[in-house]
Design a protein that fits this description.
It contains 4 helices and no strands. The protein has about 150 residues and is mainly alpha-helical. The chain has a single domain (about 1-150), classed as Ferritin, core subunit, four-helix bundle (Ferritin, Up-down Bundle), CATH 1.20.1260.10. Helix 1 runs antiparallel to helix 2. The longest helix is centred in the first third of the chain and has 29 residues, at about 1-30. The chain starts with a helix and ends with a helix.
C-alpha cells in the first residue's frame, strides 16, 4: 500500500511538472506568433508565472505538507462566457488573455477530474492544491481582462 501511494504521487508530480514545462514552452513560443507588443508582454509574463509554478512544484514535492487541504477559492466563472481564441497565432492582447484564461480553466478541470481518480488521500489533496493554484492563475487573468476590456462608462 505504501509503495502504491508513492507511485501514485510520483506519477502525479511528474504529470504536473510536465504540464508546467509545456505551458512555459507554449507561452514562450507564442511570443513569436504575434506582432502585438501587449500580447507578447503578457505571454512573457505568463511564461514567467508558469516557471514560478514549476519551481513551487519542485519545492513542494521536497518539503510540502501533502495532508493540508488548500483554502477554498471562489471561481469567478468568467471563462464560461468567453468564445474564440483557439490559437495564439496573430492574437492581440484581448485574444491572448481569453486564450490564457481558457487554458487555465482546462488545467483546473484536469486536476479536478484527477482528484476523483486518485486512490490515496495524499493524491487527492495534491490534486486539490494544484487545481487551486490553477484557479488562482485564472482569476488573476480574469481580473486583468475586466480591468482592460470591461470598463464602465
Amino acid at each position: 500500500m505504501m509503495q502504491e501511494k508513492a507511485v501514485e504521487l510520483n506519477e502525479l508530480w511528474e504529470t504536473a511538472r510536465y504540464r508546467e514545462i509545456a505551458s512555459v514552452a507554449f507561452y514562450t513560443a507564442g511570443q513569436a506568433q504575434t506582432d502585438d507588443p501587449g500580447a507578447r508582454a503578457l505571454m512573457k509574463r505568463l511564461a514567467a508565472e508558469e516557471t514560478k509554478h514549476l519551481r513551487w512544484l519542485t519545492e513542494y514535492q521536497k518539503h510540502g505538507d501533502i495532508s493540508s487541504r488548500p483554502e477554498k477559492v471562489r471561481d469567478l466563472m468568467a471563462s464560461e462566457y468567453f468564445t474564440g481564441a483557439d490559437s495564439l497565432e496573430g492574437a492581440g492582447l484581448q485574444q491572448t488573455l481569453v486564450f490564457a484564461i481558457k487554458r487555465e480553466q482546462q488545467a483546473v478541470d484536469f486536476y479536478t477530474r484527477m482528484t476523483a481518480i486518485m486512490t490515496t488521500a495524499a493524491g487527492k489533496v495534491l490534486c486539490e492544491q494544484l487545481a487551486s493554484q490553477e484557479l488562482r492563475h485564472k482569476i488573476k487573468l480574469e481580473l486583468l481582462y475586466e480591468r482592460l476590456f470591461l470598463k464602465e462608462d
